[in-house]
Design goal:
single chain, about 190 residues, alpha+beta, 8-stranded antiparallel β-sheet, two-stranded antiparallel ribbon
Length: about 190
Amino acid sequence: MTSLLELAAEKESADVTDWAARLGWVVGLLLFIALVYWLMREGWKWRGTLQGDLPELPAAPDDPGPARLELSGRYHGSTTAGQWLDRIVAHGLGTRSRVELTLTDAGLDVVRPGATDFFVPAAQLREARLDKGIAGKVLTEGGLLIVTWEHGGKLLDSGFRSDHAAEQTEWVETLNNMIDTNSTTEGTAR
């Protein structure tokens, strides 16, 4: 019986926590996260530099005329037309935000609280459609209003999601009718 007591008395429990090792791991993990964040930020800035040939975004005219349609919702970003993952970040076009869209005879006014507002003249509008994804944002089929427009010689797709998804179909029809009318008018004027 004494041998069991002697064996039990001889064994010591291991240290529960090695604080120096744990602190080293935490500091290492925080430095790794900071490095990844810094690399992502530098990549974003580099992409903006590569897209530096994109001219400044047009501002809305003083009197754009009466509103045909209005929409409130979210702006999900702009990409190179037809390439839903090639995000455009120049001039703040890559910043997701709330949005207030107003369609007039002069064009599409995009007001983004906390981000850069821009205006797409009616002559620059090319197409409108419903789609499921843009710039890494994927929704259900037809969940996004995609407006294709020309700026600085490049075709861009901008993605919007209305607070009331049912009104997006009306936007597609109205925009495409407006584009068809403008292209017919321009074709007969030449």
